[in-house]
Amino acid sequence: MGKGVSKIDIATSQVNARVISRSGNRICIEAGKLIWFKVSEWLPGTTDADKKKGTIWIRQDHTRQMIINKKQVGPSQVYGYGFKKKECGASAYYYIEATLFGNRDTKNNTGLYVKGFTPALLVSSKWCLQNDGADQRDHKFSFGENVFLGLETEGLNQQTLTIELYRLNSEVTFGKVAGRIFDTNYDPTKDDAQTKVFQKQAKVIDGEVNTEFTIQPSWKKGNEDNLFYIKVKDGNKYIQDSKKQIIHARYLKVKNNVVPIKKNMVQLTNNAPVKVGAADKDVKVNHLCTFKQINIEDNGETFEVFKEGKTAFKKTSPVVQYTTAKVHFNYDKSDIRPEARDTLKYLLDFLLYNQHLDMSLSGHADDRGTLDYNQALSERRAQSVKDFFTKGGLDKNRIKTRGYGEVSPIASGKTEEAYKKNRRVEIEFSYIEYNQNALFYEMIAPDANKIKEITVNVLNRSDKGCFRKEKHNKNIIYVNETDSKDLVPKNGSIVKQIVFSQQSGFPKNYALLLGKFLNPLSKIYYQFAFHINSCSYYADKDKATLEVRVYPDVVWIGHFQYNGEETVTSYYFHQKNFVLEQGISDVLNELKATTFYKIYRLIPANFIVEHTLLKYIESQAKSYFYGIHTYHNRNVEKAGQELSLSGTNTNLITQTQYTRFAAAAVIYGFVVVGIIIDLLMIYLTRGKNISTKLEKFAKMARKAESVLKKMNDAGVELIPPAIAVNAGMYYQKQKSGKLALVYEANIKADPLIAINFKREFDLVQLITKTIQDIKNAKHPKGSEKKLNENKENNSKIEEYFKSLGVSIKGSITVRGDLIFEQNMQFNFLTNSYSFTDKLGNLVQKAENQSIIKEQISFKADISLKYKKEFRFDPFQTKIDGVVNVGLNGILGAKLMYGVNNKEGKGLFVKKIIYCSGVEGNYFGNLKVSTVIGKILDLETNEGTPTPFTLIEPFELPLYEIELFKQ
Asked: For a designed S-S bond to 759, which of 53, 577, 663, 685 qualifies (C-beta 3.0 to 4.6 A apart)?
C-alpha cells in the first residue's frame, strides 16, 4: 500500500476568499484574499506518525512542469494562498498539491487547479532601451532602431494580447475638431494612422508584457518628429486603464532620422525579466538551514521558548549574503557528475522554496583545446546545470547563463590538479539570512552550593542547504556564562546545563542582594547564553540565540506585631512558624528622632504633648514583636504553584542594628494610627486633654465580636490597635512560564481602633472652626462648593445666637471599631495588584487601594430648648462613591499600597484617615436688629431651613510604612 496524500480540498473551517466557480478539480477564486487548503484524503498506507510529520505544499504552473514555490506546514495545519491581481487571468491556472516527502506526484491528480479572478486592467506602460529597463519616454528614438515595450497588467496573466500601434496625426488641430468634441460618438483617434498590428503576439508572463520590435522606416511621415501610442486588445475587447482610457504608452517619440537596421524584428518577442542581482530584503527567504522549536526542561516541567510561526520577534535584521557554489566536470565533458548532483539538489530545493531568488551560471574550461572549442564547451556545461534546474521544476527565466571558455582560470599550471579545478560551473546568487535579538528564559535557582540542571532541546534542526563559508552545524550548541568570553561546545540537539544564581555570598552580603531586589536598574540575574545558529534564525554565530537568566531563590520575609500584651500572635507568613524578637526599648530614641515627630507634627500642639505619647509607647515597649527572615537554596515550587518555604532559613534581625530599627519602625507606624484617630476625635469635638487616659487602654481585653460591649461594661472610651503584619518579597514563576517579582503583604487588625464615648460641644464655637489646624488635612474633591455655600450661613447663625447671648449646647456620640484582615499581592510582571478580603469588610476603590466598610460613626444632638430647630446629616453621603455614610457622619480608614523601587522603597503602605463631615440644618428664624430711627426685626432666611457645616469633611494621609527598604 502506498503512503502519502491522496486528495486536497478547501479548508472550509477557515475564512476563505470567495469561490467564484468550481468544476471538478478546477477552482476560480477572487483575488487579494487568502484561500486555505487541507489534506482531505490520505493513501491507505499512511500512518498516524507519517501525518504528524507535516506536509510540503507545491505550487506549479498549469503544465506541472515548473515549480513556482514550495512551503512546509506543520501537522494539522492548513496551507493558504492569496492571488495577486497580476497573477490572475482567464487561463492562468496554477496546480497546487501536497506531499509528505517533498516530491511531486507526476502520475496522479492529487491536487487542484486554481486561478484567481480580477477585472482586466492595464496598470502601467513604458518605452525602454533594454528589456524591462527604465521608462524612456523623453528619449527620441530613430527609425531603424529597436525599442522595448513594457506593460503591467491585472487579470490578464497568461493571455496572448494584440498590440495596435498608432501614429498621432499632427495635422489635426483643436480648431478642426472643436465642433465634434461634444459628440458622444466622436472617436478622437479616428484621424490617427494605425501603423502596425501585432496580432496576438504579446504574451502576458507573470502579469507583464516585455517585448521588442524594430521601428520601421516605412512608418515615418513628414519632416517632423513622429509620436506613437498603442491600444491593447484581449480578443475583441480593448483593455482600459484605471481612468477608463484605451490609449496607452503615450508617447513613443521618434525623431526625423533613419539609421541602418541592425536586427530587424517585425514580430514581437516575449521576454520575461531576469532579475539577477542582490536579493530583496523585503521578501522573506525560506531556508532549509533552520530549526523549528526550542524547549527548556526546568524543575520537571517543559517550557516552549521558541516555535516557528508562533514566536514573535521584536526585531529581525535581514543581511544579504553573496555565495558561489561550484560543480566540476570530467575532461571534455559537459554532463553532470554523480557527486555534483547532491550539491545541485540542495540548491534546487532552496530555490524552489524561494521563488524570488535568481542566479547566474558561468561555465569554464581548462586551456587544452582551441579557444572556440573551449568557449562552446563552457557554454554547454552552464547549459547542463541550467537543464538540471529546469527539469527539477525551476523557472528557466530565473537563470542567466554565460560561458567564459578558458579565460578565467582559478588555478594556474599545467598539472591535472589545476585542470580539475578549472573545469567547472560557478553558480552565483545572493540570499538573505536573518539575525534577531536573543530570546530569554527566566528561572529561579539556588546558588552554586546547591546546583540545578536544565535541559535545552532544539527540535527539527537542519543545516542542509547552508551556503555560508563557515557553515552552521546542527550537531553543536555553544554555551557561554556571564562575564566569560569562552564558548563551550556541546554536542547534540539536546544538551544539559548546570545553572545557579548569583548569591554565593548570601546571607553575609544580604544588604547588597536586598539592594538589587529593590533596584530595578541593577542586574540581579546570572546568565547562561546558548548559541543555536541557522540561516533562518540567529545566523550570526557570534551572537546568542537564547539567554537563560537565573534569578536568586531568596524569599525575604518580615513580621511586625503589636497587641498591647506581651505574647506573640500566631499570625505568620504562609502559616510557617518564625521566631520573632520582642520589645523596642533599645531603639526608642531612634524612633523618637524620626517617626515620632512625623506623627507629632500632624496634630495641633494644644491637643497633644510629647510626654503623653512617648510615655504610652514606653509602657508598651514589650508588646512589640518583629522579625526579618529569609529562605534561600530552596526546593523551588513549580510554575503557578504555592510558594515553597523549604530551604535554609536565616534570621536577619540579629545581623545589624539597622534591621532592628527598620522592623520596629514598621509596626510603630501602624500603632500610631489608632492614637491619631483618638486625637482627631478629641480635636473635632473640642474635647479635653488626654494626658492621663492612654495608659489604661493597654490592658483592655480584645475580641472582635464583643469589643464594644466590653468597652461599655468597663467604661473604656478607646482601645488602640492590635495589629499583625507579615510581608514577603520573592521571584516566582507564573503559570504562563514567565517570571515575576512579587510583593505580598498580609495585614490583620483586630481592631485597628475601637471607640465608644460621648462629648458635649458648643455649637457656636464648633461651627467657627475649620480643618486648617490639622496639618496635611485636605477637603475631599468636590466638597468645596457646598462648603463655600454653607460658610455664609455659619456666619449668620453665629451672629444671630451671639446677639441673643445664647449658648447652644449639644453632644456627639462616637462609637465603632475598625476591624479587617487582608492579603495583598503586587506582581511586577503584570504591574497589577490582587486583594483577598478575609473578613469580607473591605471595598476596593482602585487597583491599589481598599476602604474599610466598618466605620466609626458619630451622631450629633442639640439639647433642651433648641432641639427641634436643628437636624444633622452626613456632609458626604458616600466616600469615594463606594461606601455609604450612616447616621450623622463617620470616621474611617483607607489603605493605599505602592511600589517605588526607583527610590529603594520596595513595598509600602500609606494609611489615610477620612471624615465624612457633618452638615446641619437650622429650621428656626434668623433675625437681626438694626436702627433706622427705630428698631426693626428682619428675617434673613425668609422662613426656610438654613444649611450649615458643623464638622468639615477631610482626608488626612498618615505615616507611610515601608515594609521593605533598601
From this structure: 685
